[in-house]
Structure to design on (1118 residues):
């Protein structure tokens, strides 16, 4: 399952095509929630952090990894929660009116 | 099916869910599904990773999870006005995580001789981007919270020195690619990146922070991509690329709406000239009372409300909603006109008005409402300034010339709420306030709108 | 540079996301040329055909491969030519009027 | 950089160019760049492949190139009316290529023991899809060219038998995955797939062929994807997936515009009932002469021309252009209303009108023009029938009920050109022709429009 340089670039190119397209069509209304959502998504770095921590190769790597897991978890939790909090407020018709 | 294949399948589904998550943000109706898809994708990513055979100990991970959650939950309670700061802080955390993982991997591979050129290049990118995002975002958060002076801090040869530092960091990284065993060089990359992040943001004015945050979002994404190359993980590359594109596109949208270039935002030290350009007020503007305003508004057929940064500062959105309700009750047709960079972050006004439960189908984008402005009876400007400045259309010498604006000046009458005749973000005077058909309502937006509502409600009690 | 099953699926998924998005936004005006363009693109099968032919492992494979190269080349040539012929006809303003 | 890396980089660029190629088709202004990008991508793909170390002999490849080009060039000269047939024929070639490569690979790996489960599964898909696309497309081409009877050929238990055959082919493929050495089974897959392709298309009416072709396009794409798995090649997978999506989306668009389901198109034997439903013509339609028509048209302020399949059959587009010029000269406002499934393939009318040099900005889509129809003075229907049949709106029992139509019946007056009172593709009568405000112009579209133009030109020579 090893990944060489060009395969990585390949995936990067395809994902960028998708990203640019998808983001361009996000409703203007939702640009603020979008910022916190992508903020949460960028905490995907947790994948690398978990591996480094869990491998327990050296004390240094475990400590650095654990800090990274902590930082990423914070982003995931707060990012998704705040996005949802904002989105809940967007309503089309007046409630009960 | 081997465990490895299972994990890769989980990653595959996770990737798909991340893409769907962003796709569903295209419409407020499906946007909340987007969050659920995002959460699902993240859970899958974490579970998939934990299943891996290389994870031999879980306790540190578990402790970090718990602590992270404990800090994350209160961080999500910040008031909506503090969302930009929170986002910046999060980027700092994200950048830090990427940088630390890169550092850990470097020393790990340094020990076992696994530092191939490919890996070292990827680590170089990851560490550079990660650490500069970290300090850059901290600075941005500080400026937004006004802990750090918001005005641009400049000194001689600033751009040359900054770029020199970056070039030095890159050179060290390149050296390490060819001689990875020169491990004494590695800490210098870290220090230089951290320093560069600080110096990059210092000379940028506080009001340009939204664009900077978006760019840093993009960098955080790219550092995740670099981490993907380091860890040989396609999920990281994809999710990182999605983020990278998002930050890039949002910053482009902001720059376009301000009619400025990236270079101008990053190196222009915009907002520095604020003090000097507060021109001599020869002309006088006409001030009005809440009573006058109430009278004008209730006799109008159509009112367009144009909110700006001042509404956010004053937290006036709930009063604005009351005003809308009072006017609607009287049969006045009330619409909201939203400029793409009104406020201090993209979509700022939309979130505030949504918080006040104003349905999003009464909000109109600039391009949709401008053609109707000449037919509008009253344009009510609440704490907006630059986004309704006609100099952008008329005066080729104005710093905001060419920026698209909402044509409030074309309405039959204009009511403008602000505290003084002070300029807005761009630091320039606004003709609109001196126009014949403009009445000024001086005061804090929340108080003034509240007064107007009281006048309206007082007259015809229900 | 070898490609395992899941990596293949990964690329397939990303490409399908791109494909569905991109095609949905092709102008209705151009649906007929689009059909011939994708027809030409599907002749990408020529890549496999060339490899099979060029390897010259068995007579059978060489013969089958050569037929496949022939068939794909036909599609490439006629597909692109006819697409371009059609597209040349689409004009916005009247020429010289 | 190794040769292998270089090749992969070339493939990477090629993939990007294929994506851009389709992106540029979103606008007629950039569409021709799209073709160039596509050609560039294909050239890169071929060059990259030829660089590979496994290519030991070039002469067969060269001969096949030359022959393919020699056949391909004349194939691109077909008249525009024959484009559907040509496309179908091309899909047959594409399917054949995929099938043959899969076959070659099977026997190659059978010889050297390389038939892993993964490879055998991929080969199974490739061969099945490839060969069924091949014969299916040949049948479709035959029906479109009317070499094969276009009416649906049905027999008892047809669907059961067809699906049974497919199931059998799949079962054999599954067996081979587990016992790849049972090579006597392999030819059966080939034969069954070829047979299934034929039987799949036989029971589908000639007029449904455009949808079938699109679906086959999708299958051709998927067989390229399968080939990508066989050859372990990401370029093949990506380009194949792009094709697969394209075919799928076009068929969905067609089905929606006809308000029918996939199942109905594939297994409904639509068009079979044609004969019986030609109802008894009790009512009479009002016929008019070219002179009447010319008179009506030149006195109108606004005319909407609604072309349909009949215009394509009669090749009347150039006469239609003359008519438009004559009317425009007289100050009449002439627009074209294009139904998404007018004619026999998506975008059919657009290509024909473009051929006649009618600028595409005077063509309007159904949804854009329908709101204006009540204000239109004359709706001129040229060889269209189902797409203007008001039964789709009014009569819940009609087979086309629910299909969106162009509201020609709402115009102040209607002129309809066709040769007889015969029904169109759906085989049903059209109320529109009996309406009070409708005048029929009987005859071949090219001749009739020509006559009207002569009347107009004759009256006021220039
Ligand atoms: N949205 C974004 O993403 C973004 C990003 C980067 C830059 N920007 C920039 O930000 C600016 C946004 O324009 P804008 O029109 O929304 O804001 P603005 O031009 O900054 O003007 C805001 C006005 O609100 C008034 N104000 C402040 N506090 C108030 C209070 N409590 N009550 C009443 N009024 C108050 C201020 O006048 P007083 O001091 O007299 O009260 C000020 O003139 C644009 O120049 C844009 O380029 C926006
Ligand atoms: N476009 C696509 O992608 C697509 C795909 C699948 C199915 N379809 C189906 O095709 C149909 C298309 O509708 P349509 O309104 O364009 O065509 P239509 O309903 O098939 O009607 C065409 C009419 O043109 C007349 N005509 C034929 N030859 C003529 C000639 N030489 N001169 C003058 N008139 C002539 C015929 O009447 P006379 O015989 O009396 O002359 C016929 O009534 C729809 O039912 C649609 O669902 C389209």
């Amino acid at each position: 399952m090893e990944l060489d340089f060009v395969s990585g670039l390949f995936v990067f190119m395809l994902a960028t095509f998708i990203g640019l397209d998808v983001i361009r069509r996000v409703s203007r209304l939702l640009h603020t929630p979008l910022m916190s959502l992508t903020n949460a998504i960028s905490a995907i770095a947790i994948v690398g952090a978990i591996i480094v921590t869990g491998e327990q190769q050296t004390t240094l790597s475990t400590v650095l990894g654990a800090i990274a897991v902590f930082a990423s978890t914070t982003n995931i939790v707060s990012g998704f929660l705040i996005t949802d909090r904002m989105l809940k407020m967007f309503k089309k018709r007046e409630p009960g009116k | 099916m081997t465990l490895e294949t299972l994990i890769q399948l989980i990653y595959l589904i996770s990737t798909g869910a991340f893409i769907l998550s962003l796709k569903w943000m295209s419409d407020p109706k499906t946007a909340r599904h987007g969050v659920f898809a995002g959460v699902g994708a993240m859970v899958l990513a974490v579970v998939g990773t934990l299943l891996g055979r290389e994870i031999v100990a879980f306790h540190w991970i578990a402790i970090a999870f718990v602590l992270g959650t404990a800090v994350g939950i209160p961080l999500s309670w910040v008031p909506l006005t503090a969302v930009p700061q929170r986002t910046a802080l999060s980027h700092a955390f994200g950048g830090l995580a990427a940088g630390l993982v890169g550092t850990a991997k470097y020393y790990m591979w340094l020990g076992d001789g696994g530092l191939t050129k490919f890996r070292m290049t990827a680590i170089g990118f990851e560490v550079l981007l990660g650490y500069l995002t970290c300090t850059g975002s901290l600075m941005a958060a500080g400026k937004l919270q006004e802990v750090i002076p918001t005005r641009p801090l400049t000194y001689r040869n600033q751009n040359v020195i900054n770029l020199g530092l970056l070039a030095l960091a890159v050179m060290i990284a390149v050296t390490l690619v060819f001689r990875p065993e020169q491990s004494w060089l590695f800490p210098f990359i870290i220090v230089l990146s951290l320093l560069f992040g600080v110096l990059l943001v210092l000379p940028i004015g506080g009001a340009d922070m939204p664009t900077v945050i978006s760019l840093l979002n993009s960098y955080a994404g790219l550092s995740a991509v670099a981490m993907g190359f380091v860890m040989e993980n396609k999920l990281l590359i994809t999710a990182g690329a999605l983020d990278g594109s998002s930050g890039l596109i949002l910053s482009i949208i902001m720059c376009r709406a301000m009619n400025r270039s990236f270079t101008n935002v990053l190196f222009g030290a915009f907002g520095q000239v604020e003090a000097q350009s507060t021109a001599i007020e020869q002309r006088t503007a006409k001030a009005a009372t809440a009573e006058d305003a109430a009278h004008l508004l209730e006799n109008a057929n159509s009112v367009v409300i144009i909110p700006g940064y001042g509404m956010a500062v004053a937290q006036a959105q709930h009063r604005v909603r009351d005003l809308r309700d009072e006017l609607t009750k009287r049969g006045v047709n009330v619409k909201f006109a939203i400029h793409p960079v009104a406020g201090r972050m993209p979509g700022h006004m939309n979130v505030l008005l949504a918080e006040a439960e104003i349905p999003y189908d009464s909000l109109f984008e600039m391009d949709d409402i401008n053609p109707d402005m000449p037919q509008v009876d009253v344009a009510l400007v609440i704490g907006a300034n630059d986004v309704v400045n006609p100099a952008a259309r008329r005066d080729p010498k104005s710093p905001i010339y060419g920026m698209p604006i909402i044509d409030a000046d074309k309405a039959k009458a204009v009511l403008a709420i602000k505290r003084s005749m002070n300029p807005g973000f761009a630091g320039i005077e606004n003709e609109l306030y001196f126009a014949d058909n403009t009445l000024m309502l001086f005061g804090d937006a929340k108080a003034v709108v509240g007064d107007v509502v009281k006048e309206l409600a007082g007259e015809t009690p229900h």
Observations:
- The longest helix of chain B spans residues 83-112.
- DSSP finds 17 helices and six strands in chain B.
- The two ends of chain B are 71 Å apart (CA to CA).
